[in-house]
Every structure is written in structure tokens, then in C-alpha cells.
Specification:
Elements: E1 14-20, E2 29-35, E3 42-51, H1 54-61, E4 76-84, E5 96-99, E6 138-140, E7 145-146, E8 158-162, E9 166-168, H2 175-178, H3 184-196, E10 203-207, H4 211-223, E11 227-232, H5 237-242, E12 248-251, H6 260-268, E13 274-277, H7 282-290, E14 298-301, H8 315-321, E15 324-327, H9 335-347, E16 357-362, H10 366-374, E17 380-384
Parallel strand pairs: 10-11, 10-13, 11-12, 13-14, 14-15, 16-17
Antiparallel strand pairs: 1-2, 2-6, 3-4, 3-8, 3-17, 4-5, 5-9, 6-7
Helix pairs in contact: 3-4
Subunit structure: Homodimer.
Catalytic activity: a secondary alcohol + NAD(+) = a ketone + NADH + H(+); a primary alcohol + NAD(+) = an aldehyde + NADH + H(+)
Protein name: alcohol dehydrogenase
Length: about 375
């Protein structure tokens, strides 16, 4: 743990507040920690505000690896660069930035291609350390290491992020909206825009109307889909979904002996052009694949399933039906080029971020944000660090 001054920069450690999770499933504890200076090619960021994503909740509960504690969660955020390590030229002190769990090194074969957003040099993982060094920049006041989460760890007043995971953005965008582009909204909108390339007039089916599913609906609306069918077991979500462009609804619990895929095939006269699985359940991926249209139907997987989950497809259906299934990590978006585009879309009133934010709390009430998400009362709860 490098928590002494950095010889490359002359910078000093910072003492600040962080919401630390000591044990799985237990309330976060706001305590003082030490944040080390950035190492070469890293930046230290003062977080302005952050939001709570369902992935934080998933790993907060996880008792076995890759669950590890103590840890600082949070990966949807916006902040200001406080200091930079050696050899950082992309951003400078005072820049407004959005950290992302997806890297964009700009040098590897994948980052230089428009076909992928999966960086070869810095692949996505749930590492407890930084991507370049594998070590932590956090310790408590007793010197115990506190682990990182998704290369961001935004539930702290200051964090250290590798420059490949940082995107400079226009500081004019409201921070309580911009932070949503750090993960959830970009994932959903990007899946329609970048991964699926949904055309105007298309039919889209969305399995799961949580925040990611609604972001998919928002993206489908922007792309000009003519029919956006939402599938969920909670009828209370249907009214909300209308605000995001969903035109039709299916409650899988009211279909009797009919499967969801049968219902969608009947509704669409043969299947949807694009099916998005946003829950993280293998059975739903298979249902989505089944009700995608033969010949050109595409199933896009966004939901995070349990470790080791397997998909079961008929070889006959794959070969003879001409369908495809693909994953969409971070919506297929490239952080350093596509996130600024989404910022512009919001500024131009093309992308409606406001309707995603249902609650805002101060840092001291961060556990309330967890309760709201657990109880299904919030889409995105924005947490202000100092307000």
C-alpha cells in the first residue's frame, strides 16, 4: 500500500470521509480514511456526487469471492481532478471527469477499433485493487487496507482512478445527472445505440423494467423504435415505463400456461427484432432468444447472472433460425468518445436523464439509498458528498 508521498509527484496522502463496508450485507460505516497519492498514470478525484447501482447492491451482499471486505463501493460518479500522477497528460487538476469501470486506453487493437469497447490492455474485472498495479490506494486510520470496487470506488470524498478509466466532460452538465452516465444509463442506451444498432421502426422487447431496462427503453425511443414492449412481474413499473417510451406491457405472471416468448411471438407476428435481457437470469435469456424474430432477431444480454450460470440453446435453433445472441458490457460504448456524446445528447434534450433520478440524499444518508433500492422505491438515488 503506497500511502506515503509519491516521489514522482511530491503529493501527500489525503484524510477524508468514506462509506466503508466492513462485512457483507451490513450498513456502510462513514469513517475517516487515508487516500494515497496517485501513482504514475493515475489521478486522484474529489467526488462531487455518486449514485447507487444495483451492482453495488449485488456485491455488497456477496459473502464469497469476488466479494471481499472491507471495501469502498460505488462506481457511478462525477468529480473534479484534485491531482495527477506522473505521465498523465489527458487530464489536469481542476478538470471535471466521469470515472468508469470500463477502460479505454486508446492504444490496443480493441480500443482502436469501432467494433469493440473491450480494452485488451486493461480488461474488465472485479479486482480489489487498481487495474495497472493491482494494489489499493485506501487505508483506514489503523493502516488496514481497504479494497477498491470496479476500479472506481466512489463512496468516498476522494478516490484514485487510473487515467484509462477517466473521461473528461463538459463541467456545465449538472453533476446529479452526469453521474448516471458512469454506468447504468450508458449501459442501457448504449446497448440499443452501439451494440444492437436499433433502426427506426423496429420492434424491441425488454425483459426487466428496472433502471437498466428503462435505459434500454430510453435508447430505443431515441433510435426511433416503433414498438417497445416491456416485460416484468411488477405491474407498478408499467406506469413509470411509459415515461421512457414503453408502448406495450406483458406481466409474465398473468399469462397462465402461456410462456412469455409465446406471448411476444403472437404480439409481434413472429418475434421481436431486438430482445434485451436486463435481469441477469439464464432462463430469461433463453426466453428472449426464443421470441426474437427468425432470420435477423438479435438478443442482447445486459443482466448480470450468478457466477457459473450457463445458457442452454438448441443447436438447431441457432443454425436454422438465423438468430444471434450477444453480450453488451457498458452498452458497447467507448467511454472517452461515447460518454461525451451522451452528455451532448442531454444538453440538447435528446437524452432525458432527469426522469431516472427519483431520490437525492446527503452522504450521511447513504444507507437510506440502499434501503430505497432494496425496497424497489428508487430508480437512481443520487448521493451528494457535500451538500
Amino acid at each position: 500500500m503506497e500511502n506515503n508521498s509519491s516521489p514522482a509527484t511530491g503529493l501527500q496522502p489525503i484524510r477524508c470521509r468514506a462509506a466503508v463496508c466492513r462485512k457483507p450485507g451490513e450498513p456502510l460505516v462513514i469513517e475517516e480514511i487515508i487516500v494515497a497519492p496517485p501513482m504514475p498514470r493515475e489521478v486522484r478525484i474529489r467526488i462531487i456526487c455518486t449514485s447507487l447501482c444495483h451492482s453495488d447492491l449485488t456485491f455488497w451482499k456477496l459473502k464469497d469471492p469476488p466479494g471481499i471486505f472491507p471495501r469502498i463501493f460505488g462506481h457511478e460518479a462525477i468529480g473534479v481532478v484534485e491531482s495527477v500522477g506522473k505521465d498523465v497528460h489527458e487530464v489536469k487538476e481542476g478538470d471535471t471527469v466521469i470515472p468508469t469501470f470500463m477502460a479505454d486506453c486508446g492504444e490496443c487493437k480493441d480500443c482502436l477499433s469501432n467494433k469493440s469497447n473491450l480494452c485488451t490492455n486493461f480488461p474488465f474485472s472485479v479486482s480489489p485493487g487498481t487495474p495497472r498495479y493491482g494494489t489499493s490506494r485506501f487505508t483506514d486510520l489503523n493502516g488496514e487496507v481497504i479494497h477498491h470496487f470496479l476500479f472506481v470506488s466512489s463512496f468516498t470524498e476522494y478516490t484514485v482512478v487510473d487515467v484509462v478509466n477517466v473521461t473528461k466532460v463538459d463541467p456545465a452538465i449538472p453533476p446529479n445527472r452526469a453521474c448516471l452516465l458512469s454506468c447504468g444509463v450508458t449501459t442501457g442506451v448504449g446497448a440499443t445505440w452501439r451494440t444492437a444498432n436499433v433502426e427506426k421502426g423496429s420492434t424491441v422487447a425488454i425483459f426487466g423494467l428496472g433502471s437498466i431496462g428503462l435505459a434500454v427503453a430510453e435508447g430505443a425511443r431515441i433510435c426511433g423504435a416503433s414498438r417497445i414492449i416491456g416485460i416484468d412481474i411488477n405491474p407498478e413499473r408499467f406506469e413509470t415505463a411509459k415515461k421512457f417510451g414503453v408502448t406495450e406491457f406483458v406481466n409474465s405472471r398473468t399469462l397462465g400456461d402461456k410462456s412469455v416468448s409465446q406471448a411476444i411471438i403472437e404480439m409481434t407476428d413472429g418475434g421481436a427484432d431486438y430482445c434485451f435481457e436486463c435481469v441477469g437470469r439464464a432462463s430469461l435469456v433463453e426466453e428472449a432468444f426464443t421470441c426474437s424474430r427468425q432470420g435477423w432477431g438479435k438478443t442482447i444480454v445486459l443482466g448480470v447472472d450468478q457466477p457459473g450460470a450457463l445458457l442452454n440453446f438448441s443447436s438447431f435453433d441457432v443454425l436454422h433460425r438465423g438468430k444471434t445472441v450477444t453480450g453488451s458490457l457498458f452498452g458497447g460504448a467507448k467511454p472517452k468518445s461515447d460518454v461525451p456524446t451522451l452528455v451532448n445528447w442531454y444538453t440538447d434534450k435528446k437524452l432525458e436523464l432527469d426522469k431516472f433520478v427519483t431520490h437525492e440524499v446527503g452522504f450521511e444518508d447513504i444507507n437510506e439509498a440502499f434501503n430505497l433500492l432494496i425496497e424497489g422505491k428508487s430508480l437512481r438515488c443520487v448521493i451528494w458528498m457535500n451538500k
